[in-house]
Amino acid sequence: MSFRIATALGAVWLAVGSLAGPARAHEGHDHGAPPPPVSKSMAPRGEAASDAFELTAIPRDGKVTFYLDRFRTNEPVRGAVLEVETPEGQRTATETGEASYVLPAPWLAKAGSHDLLVTVTAGDAVDVMTVPLTIPETKAPAAAPPPTPSGTVLAKVSGALGDLRARLVAKDPVLMLTAAAAFLLGMLITVLTRGRRSLPAVAVMALVVTLALGTAAFAHGDEDHGAPAKGTPVQGAALLDAAQPSSDLAQRLPDGSVFVPKPTQRLLVLRTTMTEQATFHRMVELPGRVIPDPNASGVVQSSVGGRLSPATSGLFPRLGTTVKKGDVLAYVTPPVQAIDVSDMRQRQGELDQQIDVVERRVERYRKLAITGAVAQTQLDDALSELKGLQDRRTALDKARQQPEALVAPVDGVIAQASAVAGQMAAAGGMVFQIVDPTRLWVEALSFDALTPAENATARFADGRTLSLVYQGAGLADRNQAIPVQFAVKGNTTGLRVGQFVTVLAGTDAEQSGLALPRAAVVRSGNGQAIVYEHVAAERFEARQVRVEPLDGTNVLVAEGVGPAKRIVTEGAELLDQVR
Description:
This protein is an alpha+beta fold.
């Protein structure tokens, strides 16, 4: 083998070696990952607060929009007058339908710091606030550098190979290695077949391919081709940011706080309250259920067993039917046994015989009384005896056929009904239950003796609450607990007898803390109770708290938040979903 052929083979081997190493170093990288999202910029803004109001100013599109809210409750203020001192003189902002105030501000197009002096007049309240605004400088997007002309054949070849290298690297390093090896093998065959004259040109081409592919492969080891290098500006993103106006979105900041712009706060109806330290009676939670008032309810039972039949209307009263005291609800016809029928027939025959004898006697006495042979008193006695026998005969017939009427004992509504036509009712069995829906009680079970609770509250599973008035407690245990009864105070619409509730009854023990609505406390991902503090006009921070039951609508915050803090009371659940 000649020296030139050996030199060509060495170049080929050098190229293959320079490609093999980077291919091995390429393992473990993911080039298909999408580039990180470009975060949208936030519009500049300024805010100011006083004891009565909180004012937020957001400049955009040559105008400045003011959002005026109550400081304690975060409630939008409508119908106010905002007078702003501007470089062009005093101007009055115009109120919009979204509870905001807009003022044209062409002077805000100049970058720098601006202090807006705003006089707020809302009813009898007048306040003067200074809102600082800082307008950043607008930077134009950097232009792409012009391409460098390549005047030599080597530069053109290098550029084409660079293009090929970039495509191969982006697809598969193994494919790049295979293509390079095939190319170099083709050049080797050309050298062996055409002779020595083509060797210099082939060697130059091999050197160019080796340098291009080797440099690309070595540079490919640790970089991510799906995204530009950190700190390198993206021209497309810069143009997009320059073309689109800044957009404010609710988001959770890196420090854990939540940024919610004022327009979003209006949509979520976020409301706050100022915490105050106070002393409350300690509350205990008791299981309970709704029961009818014993003085305004009743049951309808049959005194004797018999067959049920509808009242004169032909229908049994259905559930929910309003009835009055004394209304006939149904009839019970007692059954007659065979031996009773025989005795009744025998007694009827005896009475019929006695009635026939007395009737003939009365007829004879009437004839004799005319002539004076029989005294009038004897005739009267015979008539009285006849009437008594006839009444006994009639009563015996009624006892066999007359049913028992089931009558409503109180006014109210049919709460339970078990009457079916033809049903045999047992003696003492309940057929109807009548309840007055406006007079209901709650019976709870307490494992400790309670003093009369003046501020007891019942809470349902759906969050509804009822005010209760203490009625009394039992002296006998029921399932190792003491029954305690309360009367429902106020509206009882929607309550059902037997419905389960949770009774919050006060005790003599006292405790101090902060009272907050139950809706203000939410559960974090780890189950910890948290509340959101309104620390700035558009920023909220989560505070871990320890809560205890207070009543049906409020809880007692024992630890975690101090007094004079603005805590979100409405919309806290929605605020917790912001990511």
